[in-house]
Write a structure and sequence with these properties.
CATH architecture: Alpha-Beta Barrel
Bound molecules: ligand 3NM
Low-confidence stretches: none
Strand content: 15-25%
Distance between the termini: 21 Å
Number of domains: 1
Shape: globular
Order of helices and strands: EHEHEHEHEHEHEHEH
CATH topology: TIM Barrel
Structural class: alpha/beta
Radius of gyration: 16 Å
Mean pLDDT: 95
Strand order of the largest sheet: 1-2-3-4-5-6-7-8
CATH superfamily: Aldolase class I
Length: 210
């Protein structure tokens, strides 16, 4: 796979009042130069997820300024990733396995997997996943029932366990993103610290992350 961009923006529908607000945030992220966006919709309604995802794709096709284009990743649902013509799927520990997701999305799309401890990282490393996410690094209010925080030391530790690209997630902000990268993460995934003013925040992240 091509290298992961340092900033992995996550658009979570629960953070926006209505689809127009979410699309506006996407527009701003893209204008800032963000090249990797995950669409996270925990509503559970396949038709709604697909409809919203299609609008997101449509919009992204008209606003791409990222040098390598924009990659859109579907949270949880490998089937909807393919149906929505997204570029990849991200699965959690309670979703279908990375291997099963791979069977659905094929070799041309990315598969990412969430992990929360060294054992899960070792297991994910043995799969066909393209990248591994580790978290929560810090306390987060964006996930229900989060696992225990792994901290900077946890990122450093799991960096030793895999050569796959490592995405750090959970409580990451413009103030702490550098230390997460220094601990060995290739990329930081962010929800909250991109919400208030997506364009300005994303530009600052991209500047800080170099
Ligand atoms: N997954 P914020 S933490 C979606 O630990 C998600 O796997 C996590 O949001 C994990 O940037 C998390 O607002 C929430 O902390 C990230």
């Amino acid at each position: 796979m091509t290298p992961l961009s340092r900033l992995y923006a996550i658009l979570d529908t629960s953070c926006f009042i209505g689809q127009p607000a979410l699309l506006e945030a996407a527009r701003e992220l893209i204008a800032a130069g963000v090249s990797l966006i995950q669409y996270r919709d925990k509503s559970g309604d396949s038709q709604i997820i697909l409809a919203r995802a299609s609008e997101l794709l449509e919009q992204s096709r008209t606003g791409v300024s990222a040098p390598h284009g924009l990659r859109l990743i579907m949270n949880d649902r490998a089937d909807l990733c393919v149906a929505a013509e997204f570029d990849g799927v991200h699965v959690g520990q309670d979703d279908i396995s990375a291997g099963s997701a791979r069977k659905i999305v094929g070799s041309g799309r990315w598969v990412g997997v969430s992990t929360h401890n060294p054992e899960q990282v070792i297991a994910a490393d043995r799969t066909s996943a393209d990248y591994i996410a580790i978290g929560p690094v810090f306390t987060t209010g964006s996930k229900s029932n989060p696992d225990p925080v792994v901290g900077i030391a946890g990122v450093r530790r799991v960096r030793e366990l895999t050569r796959k690209p490592l995405v750090a997630i959970g409580g990451i902000t413009r103030a702490n993103c550098n230390e997460v990268i220094e601990a060995g993460a290739d990329s930081v995934a962010v929800i909250s610290d991109l919400i208030r003013d997506p364009r300005k925040s994303a530009e600052e992240f991209l500047r800080i992350l170099g």
